[in-house]
Every structure is written in C-alpha cells, then in structure tokens.
Structure to design on (280 residues):
C-alpha cells in the first residue's frame, strides 16, 4: 500500500506539469476566431463605404499626425489634441481618486451630515448624463468660480468619475475583516490613525486594479469635453472632418489611438491584478 502511495506521489508532479502545459498552450482556435471576426468587421466597413461611393484617402492622414520639415518633426492637430486629452485625463485622474476617497470616507463616517452630503452627491453624479454635467459646470459653475473651459471640463470629469471611484474605495474598505477595526480600537488608535496606518494601505492594494479600469473609462469619457469647445483630440478630429470630409479616415484614426491607450491600460490592469492578488 505504501509503495502504491509512493508511486502516486511521484506521478503527481508529472501530472501537474502536463496539466499546466495543456492550459498554457497558445489558444490558436481563439486567435483564428478573432481574426475571422476582425476580417468580417473590416469587410463590412469597406463594403459599406464602397456602396456609398466613398473613396479612401489614407495618404492624407499622416499630415494631421505630424509633419517633417527642416530635419525636425512637428505635431499635427490630432497629436496636439492627444496632448490635451492626456493632460485632461492626468489631472482628472488625480482629482477623481481624491474625490472618490473623500466621498467613501464620508459615507462610512459617523457624521449624519457627511453621509447625507456624500449620498446626495453620488445620486446626482451617477444618475445624470455626463454631458448634462459638463454643460451645467461650464455654463453655471464656471462663470461663478471664474474658471476657464479646460478646468471646467476637468472638474466635470472628476466629479462624474469620482462618484464611481468612491464605490470602489468603499467596497475595498468594507471588505477588510472587522477584527482589524476591533484590534485598532483596543490599541487606542484614533479613527484617523486606523485609516492611515491599517485600513487604507490594505484597501488601496485591493482596489488598485478596478481604479485603473476606472481610468480607462475616464479616458474614453474625455472625448465628450469637445461639446464645450475644448480642443482635445475629438474636437480636432471634428474640425479636420469639417474641412476635409475625410470622415472615415479621421475617426478610424482617433479610434485606433484610443484603442492603443486603453489596451495598454487594460494590460496594466491585468498585471496589477496578478501582482496585488489578494488571497482570502
């Protein structure tokens, strides 16, 4: 009996290795299906354009990305717009994280007023369209505060995305064992020290991947700020289309740029999930 168990124990590593190799093989079937789907989408787009008598002019697109003159490169309107988009996204991301954390702490606080204010903000921000919030802040709030359209766009995006970030923070905080709160109270720590030294370091570790996913939504939502004439990438694309009528080429180009950015961040999310994986 013992010999049989010994032989089985020797076979276990080989079986595990075989299973690992079988699950880590390249998914050729999925790749083929993906290529077929992409080919079908490309065919539909090309067929639709052909039926409308559209003539592709991709050779005109590079000049809207960059120009090369006298040995130096100059950014075209699309990449200049991308700079504004990334600038808006970067500042909005920081404000989103700050607003989200502050709102989550208010919701979990003992203050009735704090909880009511946080709840009211969340209900308004999550149940009204972003474009309505953009118009309200630009036409109503911005003149009162004396801010320009760029910061009005940043403020609107931050408040909108911060409402969703607050739920991410709150879920990370409440997921921690209650014993940690009880232990901190028994040690005589204040609520501020408990959050700062014990709760938030663990909660942020847990919510970092979904917060990064929220940043992806922020980047895509930033295209809406063109409605208040902020010359980010989408607004630049609209201006180019109005001037050149290169509708498909220009919009497909900016779609590709957005896709590259969001795919990169999606891979970052996957990396963070593997690195900061929490074992319950």
């Amino acid at each position: 009996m013992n010999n049989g168990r010994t032989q089985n124990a020797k076979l276990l590593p080989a079986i595990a290795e075989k299973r690992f190799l079988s699950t880590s093989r390249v998914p050729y079937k999925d790749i083929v299906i993906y290529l077929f789907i992409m080919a079908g989408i490309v065919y539909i787009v090309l067929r639709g354009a052909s039926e409308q008598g559209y003539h592709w002019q991709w050779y005109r697109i590079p000049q809207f990305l960059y120009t090369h003159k006298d040995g130096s490169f100059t950014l075209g309107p699309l990449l200049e717009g991308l700079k504004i988009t990334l600038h808006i996204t970067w500042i909005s991301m920081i404000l989103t994280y700050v607003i989200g954390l502050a709102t989550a702490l208010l919701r979990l606080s003992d203050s009735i007023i704090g909880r009511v204010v946080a709840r009211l903000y969340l209900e308004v921000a999550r149940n009204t369209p972003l474009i309505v919030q953009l118009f309200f802040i630009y036409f109503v709030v911005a003149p009162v505060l004396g801010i320009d359209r760029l910061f009005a766009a940043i403020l609107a995006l931050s408040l909108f995305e911060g409402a969703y970030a607050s739920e991410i923070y709150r879920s990370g905080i409440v997921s921690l064992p209650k014993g940690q709160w009880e232990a901190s109270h028994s040690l005589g720590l204040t609520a501020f020290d408990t959050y700062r030294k014990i709760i938030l370091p663990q909660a942020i570790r847990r919510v970092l991947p979904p917060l990064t996913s929220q940043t992806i939504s922020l980047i895509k939502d930033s295209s809406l700020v063109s409605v208040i004439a902020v010359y980010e990438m989408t607004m630049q694309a609209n201006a180019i289309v109005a001037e050149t009528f290169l509708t498909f080429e220009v919009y497909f180009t900016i779609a590709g740029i957005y896709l590259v950015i969001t795919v990169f961040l999606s891979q970052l999310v996957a990396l963070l999930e593997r690195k900061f994986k929490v074992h319950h």
Summary: The chain has two domains: 16-52, 75-275. The chain has eleven helices and two strands. The first strand starts at residue 66 and ends at 69.
